[in-house]
Amino acid sequence: MTNPNAVISDTQSAIAMAITGGVNNSSLFSPSIANSPYNINLFSRNKFPKSIENGGMAKNVAWVDAMRASSPTRNHSEDGEEKKGWMVKHPSALGVFEEIMSAAKMKQVVIFLDYDGTLSPIVENPEQAYMAPEMREAVKNVAKYFPTAIVSGRCRAKVYNFVRLSELYYAGSHGMDIKGPSSRKHQKGNQNVLCQPAKEFLPMMTEVHEILLEKIKGIDGASVENNKFCLSVHFRCVEEENWGDLADRVKGVLKDYPKLRLTQGRKVLEIRPTIKWDKGKAIEFLLESLGYGNSKDVLPIYIGDDRTDEDAFKVLRKRGQGFGILVSKIPKETQAVYSLQEPSEVMYFLQRLVAWKRAVARNH
Ligand SMILES: [Mg+2]
């Protein structure tokens, strides 16, 4: 077994990951997961469920448990004591809005927004994850005052088709495909940004997409979305009894591709190149491109709902600049400072941001 593929679950309490083999020593490829923000060392070995280490059927159970845990509606209290305690640690960004904005005075606010589950509701069919017109209006207004980027797991073209605002930066495929705005709004920084750190993987991704389409045939409800630098195997519409079979088939394909790794998001298995690049790296790149690489006068705000957004939250914590906002109705382990419950609250937060900026402008 030489396959470095790993599974990363959506909740830390669940089986965080199942390592199925060794690591690739090439400097380009993560040496490997060890350097990933989802560092395996975060989870001490004795915390791994026996099922993962025993292999065989038991390993499959671990996969299914992890897939089950990625459903945000299961086994969690939305209003209980746990939630109250969590809200103390991660207050509502609306509740402490004034406090947040006092940190933004005299600084350039830069907005980073995830798409699915942040600007649009999570829906059964990922092709229909449309954003509400009012949300688009809110994002459009925000972009009038602040450099704004969409950072999504989807491919850049697809997320652009949903958002359709040419004045934004777009970082698709978990930040592996970045492009600046086609219309000029902000004077500072480079508008003609283009960054594709995993470009050499494109032929491999296309090949694996074709194979996966074939392999998952026969599993009702399973679909594969080609997000260019990330292949998303959706199991939202798959009967739970078939999740193990689906995971096995995906893992079977990846055995032949040690340079790809498997991670898990909300009701989705994702296959990505094992390069050291993620949403966190993407926002560092964008801040640099905007001319705020070493600036103290910038306040980045990142809003997202998924495990992959944690990489970005972590970067902001490390920089000691700005803050992450996790969109979640349920308590989750997170590096975000604040929280919002759902996309409608994200919209309200963005609207308040615009109103705040307009009020500041009026007073000067
Ligand atoms: Mg999301």
Write a structural description:
This protein is α/β, with parallel strands linked by helices and 364 residues long. The chain folds into 2 domains: 82-196 and 277-363, HAD superfamily/HAD-like (Rossmann fold), CATH 3.40.50; 200-273, Trehalose-6-phosphate phosphatase related protein, domain 2 (Alpha-Beta Plaits), CATH 3.30.70.1020. The protein has helices spanning 50-54, 56-69, 81-89, 97-102, 133-145, 156-163, 202-215, 243-254, 279-289, 310-319, 343-362, and strands at 108-113, 148-151, 169-172, 177-179, 194-195, 223-226, 231-234, 260-265, 268-273, 298-304, 323-327, 338-340. The strands form 2 sheets. It has an 8-stranded mixed beta sheet, with helices on both faces. It has a 4-stranded antiparallel beta sheet with strand order 6-7-9-8, covered by helices on one side. α2 crosses α8, α7 (202-215) runs antiparallel to α8 and α9 (279-289) crosses α10. The structure holds magnesium ion. Magnesium ion binds next to loops. Its cofactor is a divalent metal cation.
Keyphrases for this structure?
alpha/beta, disordered N terminus, Trehalose_PPase, stress response, single chain, eight-stranded mixed β-sheet, binds magnesium ion, Alpha-Beta Plaits, 15% strand, Rossmann fold, four-stranded antiparallel β-sheet
